[in-house]
Amino acid sequence: MSWKKILDQLEEGSVRAAYPDGESWVANVKVKEAILDAFKAGENVGYGGIYEGFVDKDNLPPRLMLPEDGVRLVPGGSAIRRGAFVAKGVILMPPAYVNIGAYVDEGTMVDSHALVGSCAQIGKNVHLSAGVQIGGVLEPVGLSPVVIEDDCFIGAGSVIVEGILVKKGAVIAPGVTLSKSVPVYDCVQEKMLGKGAPIPERSVVVPGTRPISSDWGKSQGLSVSCPIIIKYRDEGSDASLELEEALR
C-alpha cells in the first residue's frame, strides 16, 4: 500500500501507528515505514496562502479543519500535520502542535504550548495541560510511541517520552518527567517499578527525588529527580479533575 493511502487512513482514524495488545501497546511497523517513505518522497518547498513564509515537505502540509470536522482549533499558531488524526470534540489551544501519525481521541483538550509528537496515541477525555511535551517515536520503527490512555490528566510542563505508557485514569502532576531511564517509585504499594514500566491505572504521580548512592554523592548531599506515585485516585481527586463541559 502506498504511503499516500496510509496517510489518508491515519487522518481518517481507520489505521493507527500503534494498537493495544493485552496490557501493552504494539507499534504498527507498516504505518511507521510509510511515514518514513513519505518523508523520503517529499521535497522542501515554500508554502503559500495562509502558510506564506513556511518551508516543509511538499507532501506533508498542515491539515485544514472545517466546522463539520467537529474539532475546535482556536486561532493563534496551532497546527495539525498531514497524517494525524484528531477526533470530534477535541480542542486545541494556541500554540499547540499535533505531528504526523499522532492519534488524538474524542473530548481531549490540548492546551497552549503542548506538543503531541509523531505517532503518539492520546485517548478519550485526556487533558494535556499547558506546556506538556508528549514525545514522538518514528525510529526505530518497532518501538511503540508514547501512549496516554483514556481519562488521564497530564499536568502543566510535564514531559513524557521514549514510548512510556500511561494507563487509564492516571494523573501526572505538573513538572513530572517520565522516560525509560528513570524508575518510578510507588509509595502506596511500597515498591519500585522497573525503568520504562507502564504508569498504573488511576495512579497519581508527583515529582520527587532520590539520593545518589555513591559515597561522593552522599557526602555532597546530592539527589536526582524521580517520579513518585503518591496515591491512587479517589472521589475527591476525581471531583477536582472533572472536565468542564462548558469549555467544549
Structural commentary:
The chain is an alpha/beta fold and 248 residues long. The protein has one domain (3-183): UDP N-Acetylglucosamine Acyltransferase, domain 1. The protein contains four helices and 25 strands. It has helices at 3-12, 29-41, 215-219, 235-240; strands spanning 18-21, 24-27, 44-46, 55-57, 72-73, 79-80, 85-86, 91-92, 97-98, 103-104, 109-110, 115-116, 121-122, 127-128, 133-134, 147-148, 153-154, 159-160, 165-166, 171-172, 177-178, 184-186, 191-193, 203-211, 223-232. A hairpin with a 4-residue loop joins strand 22 (184-186) and strand 23. The longest helix has 13 residues, at 29-41. The two termini are 37 Å apart. The relative contact order is 0.11.
Write the layout of secondary structure elements.
Layout: H1 3-12, E1 18-21, E2 24-27, H2 29-41, E3 44-46, E4 55-57, E5 72-73, E6 79-80, E7 85-86, E8 91-92, E9 97-98, E10 103-104, E11 109-110, E12 115-116, E13 121-122, E14 127-128, E15 133-134, E16 147-148, E17 153-154, E18 159-160, E19 165-166, E20 171-172, E21 177-178, E22 184-186, E23 191-193, E24 203-211, H3 215-219, E25 223-232, H4 235-240
Helix pairs in contact: 1-2
Short description:
The protein has 248 residues and is of the alpha/beta class. It contains four helices and 25 strands. Helix 1 (3-12) crosses helix 2 (29-41).
Provide key terms for this protein.
4 helices; 14% helix; UDP N-Acetylglucosamine Acyltransferase, domain 1; 25 strands; single chain; 29% strand; globular; six-stranded parallel beta sheet; alpha/beta
